[in-house]
Design a protein that fits this description.
By secondary structure, the chain is of the alpha/beta class. It is 30% helix and 21% strand. The chain contains 15 helices and 17 strands. Strand 16 and strand 17 form a beta hairpin. The site of zinc ion (ZN) has 4 residues, from loops.
Length: 447
Amino acid sequence: MKKNALLIKNARIIDPANDIDMIGSILIKDGIIQQTGGSITDSAPQIIDATGLVACPGFIDLHCHLREPGFEEKETVASGAAAASRGGFTTICCMPNTNPPLDNAATIDYVNTLAARESGRVTILTVGCITKNREGREITDMSELAGAGCVGFSDDGSPVSSSRIMVLAMLKAASLGLPIIDHCEDLELSHGGQMNDGWVAARLGLKGIPAAAEESIIARDIVLAEMTGAGLHITHVSTGGAVKLIREAKSKGLKITADVTPHHLTLTDERIASNPVKPEESPAFDTLAKVNPPLRSAADVEALIQGINDGTINAIATDHAPHTDEEKLCEFELAASGISGFETAFGVLMTLVHAGKINLNTLIARMTIGPSRVLINRFGRTGTLAAASPADIALLDVNRQWIVDKNNLLSKGKNTPFDGYTLKGTVVATIHRGEIVYRNSSPGIAQ
Ligand SMILES: [Zn+2]
């Protein structure tokens, strides 16, 4: 093998999959972890002294948008891969709402070819469409998509409104051993809505999207998953009621998993009305905080955090959704929904750790072994630092402060509501298959 051996030493090793939190070393050879522990005596030609840093499995993102093919002005597979690497991600799953959408093997092959070019720095997996052209009318040839290597099925950006079509899709997905990744939205209830339905929407005079628009479809799909035996992964959960439904379903032993985004865990609908960092520059309605599902209330945020802490929510997924400036610098009603999230995810989530709301080990679990297990049928060996696993590792400085500058993002999408925020916690280096693929060279802010 061309790859050299690498030794990371003096790190605080956090590997939730193996219940490890200790000071020690990780020995890597040929892209594979040889040994993780406190007493490694072997050396290596390349040594990283990680004193003061956390070493954990590379982050795994179940939900992102790389926009290629069709929307290369927003992002490309290459620019998205660079942004993911900087965010500490070593495996990412891209959603199929491209143009053309990933509803056939040829398009998935195309994205896989682009992904292969980036395979030196991040593993990119594809999600295939549930229905042809994401129209909700006819299911795709899911066997063919699975054959092309997709890791799950989703019409993300759109729900599958027909229960009958969803049943057909679930039966097929179950037979293939792959999950349905569910964007839950009742389009009749959300129709015309711009933000969370509640006091802030009323104050701003914007039409609201009720929690029920999400929860009614989650409830339906839990019932359908029970009927079909399908694995159901509910993505970007945003309401307290949704957490409750998922908790109840899991307690019945159903194969339900769920993820939540960094922004739904840290921002409320108030962020649309005011920007705490730049209050004077803040527009009346900040389109940078427009996202689907919408930012919810403080009570919802607390419920999501509780879901993370008690394991109801398996994973944190970025829903990285890059857009051009033109799509955000416009009237609120016309603005695109979404946040460019790879590069701020860890720093944003660390605000919850520093506030004492989530334990660091829990946070890392939800970004590593949690999402890995959602895809366990095919990708069970990621998300761990156990010997013989791929050497996918993030090195983190949990106390280093930095200021988000949207103009410095590697993503083409500069659409972040966190621009100007001071965050405490950063990715210092990302190692993918034993190679250092990202190193943070910018200085932190003295504390
Ligand atoms: Zn979605």
